[in-house]
Every structure is written in C-alpha cells, then in structure tokens.
Amino acid sequence: MLHYSLRQLEYFVTTAECHSVANAARKLNVSQPSVSKALTNLEGQFSTQLFVRHHAKGVSLTRAGERLLVDARSLLRYAKDLEQSVLDSGELVTGQVEVACFMNVAPIFMPALLADFQKIYEGISIRLHEGNQDKLTSGLISGRYELGLMFDLALPEEITIRKMAGFDHYVLLPKDHPRASKKKIFLRDMMDDNLVLLDIPPSREYFLGIFRSLGLEPEVSFSSPSLEMVRGMVGQGRGYSLLVTHPHLDYTYDGQKIVTLPLADEVARAELGMAQHAQIRPTRAMKLFFDFCSDWFRKYYPRGGSCRAEPPLYDQSAGSLSEARKLPYPP
Fold first, then answer.
1. Burial 42-60 (b: 16+ CB within 10 A, else e)
2. How many angstroms separate the Cα of 297 from the Cα of each of 22, 200, 293, 308?
3. Whole-angstrom Cα distance, residue 122 to residue 115?
4. Other C-beta atoms within 10 Å of 219: how many?
5. Among 1.10.3720.10, 3.40.190.10, 3.40.50.2300, 2.60.120.260, what is the CATH number of 88-166+271-300?
6. Which of 45, 115, 195, 293 has the most CB within a 10 Å radius?
7. What is the pTM of this model?
8. Strand partners, 242
C-alpha cells in the first residue's frame, strides 16, 4: 500500500520545474535535505527512479518521473480545488486556471475573452501563457497547462480538443497590388509574386501544404514567426501572404494599408479549439472557463462566420491609422 503526502508531491513537482533540488528548496522556503528526503521517499514508495541526478548540474526527470508529473500536477490542483470548495462561502467560485494560447492568436481573442470572463467569475484567476504549437503541446502533456487555445493540427493522441470556431483562409496584399480590387483570389494567380510566409510551428508546413495540395510551389521571399512582421512586409510590397488569423485592423504597425481577399480555392477551414490532456482531472474553475469559452466563441465567432467579429475594432473608413477612431466592439 502506498503512503505518500501531498507535500511530497508538491516537492516533486517544484523540483521538476526548477530542475534542481537546491532551487526547489529555495522556492519552497524549506531546507534542501527536506526536499531530498521527500523525493527519496517517493521513489521508494513507487519503487522506481523519478530523477536522474547530474553532479553540479541539477536533475532531470526519468520517463517514470515524466508520467508522474502529469498526474501529480492534476492531483495537487484537485486537492486545492477541494480545499477551496470547503472554504468558499456563498456563490463566489474561486480558483486558478493555467491557460495557454497560440502566440499569434492570443492578442486577437484573449484580452476580450478574459475581460468578459472576469466580469462573471471575479474569484477565478486565469494565468495566461503564450507560445507556438510545440510549446503548448508539451505544456499540456506535462500538465503545466490545463487548457490550450490552439489550432487542431498535428496533435498527439493524448491531447483532446473541442473545436470552438472555424476560420476561412485569406490572401493578404499591399493596397496598391494589381489584384487588390478583386472579390476573391486563387492561389495560382499569385505564382508570379513572392510569398511572405508565416514561419512558426505548425504554420509553415500547414500553409506550404495548402499550396502543394493545389499542385503549386510558391517562391518564398521572406519568412517570420511574427504575424505582425509578415503583415508589415506585405504592407511594404515584399509580396503577398496566405493567412488565417485576422487582426481587426487592416493597417500594419508602421501605418501601411493592407488588403485581405477571401481565398477562392476550396480549402478546409482552419479549426481553432480548446485542448487539454485526456487524463487530466478538471477542477471547478477549469470547467467553468472551458464552458465559458465555448459559449463566447459560439456568440462572437459562430462556426461558418468570419475570423473577424463585427463591428470592427476600428473605423477603417478613416483616412489613416492616426485618424482611426475606436468603435464599440463586442465583446
């Protein structure tokens, strides 16, 4: 029969995150021997090695340690949630949720989404993390993140995702491009131009895969992991881009007007969803945030709708970026 405490699990998780017993002890404000003893006892209880000790270089998890880390984080969150449910009075729900978001999507959706959520659930704290798809996936697998807003692309089997919204692809052009006045555009019509490629996992292979599925091979003139850098280079006439994520203002950071045209080619929509580890035990706060996100996207970005909510964030009939005035914007 196993006998281990939540405190031992807390010491284990902190050591894994700090990659060092000494650093974990400092973070926990306990002695280093206390942490070492807790880890030794855990390894004895599970009859397996959880860490590889590197002389003067900290520690790293074994495969068994990596598996335990996911469940330990989940159990600690559940224990805290249980404690909080006993202490909570009235209808105020408290707690904390570790939420990650794909870095190029986060600035478009998360500020408004979180603001709306906090108006209803003021007792729940959302800790927001940003990164590329690889970082989000590894964070969900390790249990560091509870939920991840990301595209449904190349996810491992231990990650489940509920689709929140689907978005159409579009071609981004500088305002004076010869095809900027068209209503729609085929990618084959852009093969004489250079492509400015969004180069971040998994976007690079995803967008290039769309060209290849149509029998096309674009000429890439510039690539960047930054959505705004891609938009800026298009605005300066360095080429066109194929994108999904659509900021609400068709101006670049340096004030250039850019034009978005729907893609005429038949390409499956890009699906944005909320992902989580299949084995994670959801807390009350996590459930509430997940359900809120489902309702929020259904309201403002209904499936079959565009990637841009109406009304737009700024009045784009204004003559320049400096003259653009802010409009009421739901949410």
1. bbeeeeeebbeeeeeebbe
2. 44, 24, 6, 12
3. 10
4. 11
5. 3.40.190.10
6. 195
7. 0.72
8. 171
Q: Which two tokens stand for residue 3?
A: 């006998």
* 6-62 against 169-268: fold identical: no
- Omega prior to 330 cis, within 30 of 0: no
Asked if pLDDT for residue 134 goes beyond 80, the answer is yes
> To the nearest whole percent, how much of the chain has pLDDT over 90?
57
CA pair distance 75, 112, nearest whole angstrom: 31
Q: Contact, 250 vs 258, CB < 8 A?
A: yes
CATH of span 6-62: 1.10.10.10
Is there a contact between 203 and 277 (Cβ–Cβ < 8 Å)? no
Residue that the structure tokens 């560091």 belong to: 144
- CATH number of the domain at 169-268, please? 3.40.190.10
Mean pLDDT to the nearest integer, 230-255 = 95
Please tell me the predicted confidence (pLDDT) of residue 173: 97
Query: Three-class SS string for the chain?
Result: CCCCCHHHHHHHHHHHHHCCHHHHHHHHCCCHHHHHHHHHHHHHHHCCCCEEEECCCEEEECHHHHHHHHHHHHHHHHHHHHHHHHHCCCCCCCEEEEEEEECCCHHHHHHHHHHHHHHHCCCEEEEEEEECHHHHHHHHHHCCCCEEEEECCCCCCCEEEEEEEEECCEEEEECCCCCCCCCCECHHHHCCCEEEEECCCCHHHHHHHHHHHCCCCCEEEEEECCHHHHHHHHHCCCCEEEECCCCCCCECCCCCEEEEEEECCCCCCEEEEEEEECCCCCCHHHHHHHHHHHHHHHHHCCCCCCCCCCCCCECCCCCCHHHCCECCCCC
Domain boundaries, the chain: 6-62, 88-166+271-300, 169-268
Question: Which tokens is 271 given?
Answer: 């699906």
Which pLDDT score, from 0 to 100, does residue 99 have? Answer: 97
- One-letter amino acid of 253: Y
Residue 249, CA distances (Å) to 11, 72, 151, 180 in order = 47, 43, 22, 16
